[in-house]
C-alpha cells in the first residue's frame, strides 16, 4: 500500500465534526436575556439580604453568650449583687463591640469577594467579543 492510500483511509475513518465551542461554554450559556439577568440579579440580592439578616444577629449572640458565662462564673464565686451587675454590664458592652467588629469584618470580606467575582465576570464577558 502506498502512503496516499493509508492516509486516505485514516481520514475516511475520522468523521469531520462541527466546530466545537470553547470548553465549559455552550451556545445557550453565552447569551443571557434581559429577563434572565433581572431574575439572577434579584436572586443574588435576596441572598445578600438573607446573609445580612443572619449577620445582624452576631453581636447580640456574642454579647449574650459572654454575659451568660460571666454571670454563671460570678454566681459560683458568690460575688455581691452590686459588683456582679457592674461587671456584667461592662462585659455585655465589651462583647457587643467585639461582635460588631466581627460583623463588620465579615461584611468587608463578603464585599471583597463580590468585587472579585464582578471583575472575573467582566473579564469573561469581554473575551468572546474579541
Q: Your description of this structure?
A:
The chain has 130 residues and is mostly helical. It has one domain. The chain contains five helices and no strands. The chain has helices at 3-13, 27-30, 34-56, 58-76, 81-129. Helix 4 runs antiparallel to helix 5. The chain is rod-shaped, with a radius of gyration of 31 Å. It starts with a helix and ends with a helix. Mean pLDDT is 79; it is low at 17-21.
Topology, pairings included?
Blueprint lengths: L2 H11 L13 H4 L3 H23 L1 H19 L4 H49 L1
Helix pairs in contact: 4-5
Q: Could you give a quick summary of the protein structure above?
A:
It contains five helices and no strands. The protein is mainly alpha-helical. The longest helix is centred in the last third of the chain and has 49 residues, at 81-129.
